[in-house]
Amino acid sequence: MTETGDGRGDAAAPAPSDPIAVGSEGDLPVVLEAAGLTKHFPVRRRGRAALTGPRRAVQAVDDVTLTLQRGRVTALVGESGSGKSTVARLLAGLYPRTGGDIKLHGETVNIKHGKAFRAYARRVQMIFQDPFASLNPVHTVRYHLTRALKIHGRAGDDLEKSLHDLLSRVQMTPPERYIDKFPHELSGGQRQRVAIARALGADPEALLADEPVSMLDVSIRLGVLNLLRDLKERLHLAILYITHDIASARYFADETMVMYAGRMVEGGDSETITQNPAHPYTRLLIDSAPDPDRLVGGAAELDPGEVPAERGAGEPPSLIDPPSGCRFHPRCPVAMERCKTDLPPRFEVDDAPGHWAACWLYDGAAR
Ligand SMILES: Nc1ncnc2c1ncn2[C@@H]1O[C@H](COP(=O)(O)OP(=O)(O)OP(=O)(O)O)[C@@H](O)[C@H]1O
Ligand SMILES: [Mg+2]
Question: How far apart are CA 239 and CA 125, in angstroms?
Fold first, then answer.
């Protein structure tokens, strides 16, 4: 087994990792890539500590390396507070980064002013979790989509046709039924489709979808995911799909990356990650995902005392003072001595090409 970069060095002074497209399909062009991406939010100090105390920061994202390819969905999975949204916001240029590099088609992204941001946003668009909050309640669908087309210089000669095309692309047909509606007159799923249409108004190459279906009724989630898949296939978009739900990653994403407490812990093709998880944290995520087969005679019949030890229960750590070594070690049911002190790099896992885990269990040299 070999080391493939990532996870080197001290968490407090991250060094960018090698921008290796782990788990990627070689011939698809890379649209967006991040190497060693890091974001620390300074913590405001009060009283005397403001003058004398140490500078503290929430180490929300540390040394994240990922690649988005044309026509491919990459899922970013992890529990609440693991840093998923921060990664998306960094990739969208909404936050300045503490460290690391972002490249769009191989060129480093450097957003210094509004004009550069608009040019970047035309190519990399974000979709948020709550379509009701992201659409302005006092404006109609027509207003939202017209504005997007105009901002990105895509209104064209026939605005009405461009608007209808956008609505048709998100399967809101006939378009005239929806175009003059206000957000409150639409269902949650339709609102999210409008938000997606608005993102498409920029004609982007990458879509960063931050939990795009988690606020929707279960019955309509699949429809919206199928729409995103259709856009991936027809428009060859590179899609980052952020979710808590590792089961939906298997269904929808080609590749899955797992994040824990600000760091990537495992990656590979979605089938392998969900069927043969290597990292103890990924196993915990899969064990705790609702699975109808397990509900009968499953967890309910276990001795409650057994569950924590077996499933690595516990709280995610503080990101102001994260655990040394592997950040998962305090919860890990198979933690070894070195996990407490040494940060594991990415190790290849032999079962499938491109499958890796940042876990000392896979250190071939130690076997
Ligand atoms: N603007 C901010 N200022 C300070 N801390 C922040 C800020 N944004 C996020 N954080 C912290 O960074 C960490 C990661 O947050 P983030 O929102 O990226 O997690 P997440 O994985 O998206 O969680 P969720 O699944 O709940 O959306 C959290 O500890 C959060 O409190
Ligand atoms: Mg989030």
Answer: 10
Instruction: Say how far apart CA 62 and CA 65 lie, in whole Å.
Output: 9
pLDDT band at 367 (very low <50, low <70, confident <90, very high): low
| Smallest CA separation from ligand 1 atom 28, residue | 81
The pocket of ion ligand 2, defined by CB under 5 A, consists of: 85
Integer distance in angstroms from the first to the last C-alpha of the chain?
10
Consecutive H or E run containing 228? helix 218-235
Pocket around ligand 1 at a 6 A CB cut-off: 41, 58, 60, 78, 80-86, 244, 319
Q: Whose CA is nearest to atom 25 of ligand 1?
A: 80
Q: Which residue's alpha carbon is nearest to atom 7 within ligand 1?
A: 41
How much distance in Å is there from the Cα of 361 to the middle of ligand 1? Answer: 29
Render pLDDT for 276-318 as a digit per residue (tens, 0 to 9): 999 999 999 998 876 544 443 333 333 333 333 444 567 889 8
* Beta strand segments in 128-252, E: 206-210, 238-243
- Domain boundaries 30-42+57-137+204-289+309-366, corresponding CATH code: 3.40.50.300
